[in-house]
Specification:
The protein is α/β, with parallel strands linked by helices. It has one domain: 3-Layer(aba) Sandwich (Rossmann fold). It contains 8 helices and 7 strands. A 7-stranded mixed β-sheet has the order 3-2-1-4-5-7-6, with helices on both faces.
Length: 215
């Protein structure tokens, strides 16, 4: 069950996507004009990195090109593990970490089979991954396994259902970087069935921003 289709992320479109997601001044207007939603909650939710307890582990899966590194203080007492299955994304993320001067461990791994022990992380970021996975429910369950009790899951995903005609054109299951793509109720069910509680979900256009804690 591949985390991402690297033929897409290695393409020109994949490079453009990576670039604008890393730069809020570009990403915010593109979110409104191209996708019909507001990316602001995504950039704000990166604060979960700075809110992680000192000495704990933050897992960023999928890390993409490393946009969440902007929230990582080079002086922070954190272990930051960036995970992706796409070689092109990992290469971009390594360059981003070097440019920002932050210490990041990189893993090429599947979101549904993370090479980390049970309860290893206090925080897990799942930005723009669930709509790419062939088995998103399994990926959510794996996030719960890796998180410690009361550990925090923060993420964002594209949804299907209630789209405009334009959004249906761009967001198509199994086309480009997309997998089957869930609906809002399905995402909530994945979280609940994996043992998450205190679930908060905010929708903007075709995008869902969510947070939850492992019971």
């Amino acid at each position: 069950m591949p985390m991402a289709r690297d033929d897409f992320y290695a393409s020109v479109l994949g490079a453009v996507y990576s670039f604008y997601m890393e730069h809020p001044r570009i990403g915010l207007p593109i979110g409104r004009l191209a996708w019909g939603g507001d990316f602001a909650p995504y950039y704000k939710s990166m604060a979960a990195v700075s809110e992680a307890p000192p000495g704990s582990t933050v897992v960023d899966c999928p890390c993409g090109a490393g946009p969440a590194f902007r929230a990582l203080d080079p002086r922070a007492d954190l272990r930051y593990v960036a995970v992706d299955l796409s070689p092109s994304m990992l290469a971009r993320a390594r360059r981003s970490a070097a440019a920002r001067g932050v210490a990041v461990e990189f893993l090429a791994a599947d979101a549904a089979a993370l090479p980390l022990p049970d309860g290893a992380a206090s925080t897990l970021l799942s930005f723009w991954g669930l709509h790419c996975f062939e088995h998103p429910r399994t990926a959510v369950a794996e996030a719960a396994r890796v998180l410690e009790p009361r550990g925090r899951l923060v993420g964002a995903t594209f949804l299907r259902g209630r789209e405009t005609l334009r959004q249906r054109f761009f967001i198509r299951p199994h086309v480009g970087g997309f997998g089957p793509i869930g609906t809002g109720p399905e995402v909530e069910d994945w979280l609940q069935s994996s043992g998450f509680e205190e679930i908060e979900m905010t929708r903007s256009g075709p995008m869902l921003f969510f947070s939850a804690r492992r019971a």
